[in-house]
Amino acid sequence: MRRIFILLTFLVIGGSPMALGDQRIKSPNVSGQFYTANPQRLSAEIDEFMQKAAVRPFDKHIDIMVAPHAGYMYSGGVAAYGFKAASQNPYKTVIILAPSHYFGFDGISIWEEGGFQTPLGVVEVDTPLARQLMAEDEKFYDAPQAFAQEHSLEVEIPFLQKAFKNFKIVPVIMGQPGFQLLEKFAAVLHKVIGSRKDVLIVVSTDLSHYHDDAKARQMDRRTLEAVQGLKAEEIWKACQSRTTMEMCGVVPMTAALLYARQKGLRHVDVLRHANSGDVTGDKNRVVGYASIVIYDDESGESLQQNYGKEQKVSEGSLTPGQKKRLLKIAQDTISEYVQKGNVLAVEETDPRLMKEEGAFVTIRKAGHLRGCIGNILGRGPLYLTVRDMAISSATKDPRFRPVTPQEFDAIDVEVSVLSMPRIIKNTDEIVLGKHGVIISQGPLHQGLFLPQVATETGWTKEEFLSQLCVQKAGLPADAWKDPKTRIEIFTAEVFAEKDLEE
Question: How many CB atoms within 10 Å of residue 166?
Answer without folding.
Answer: 8
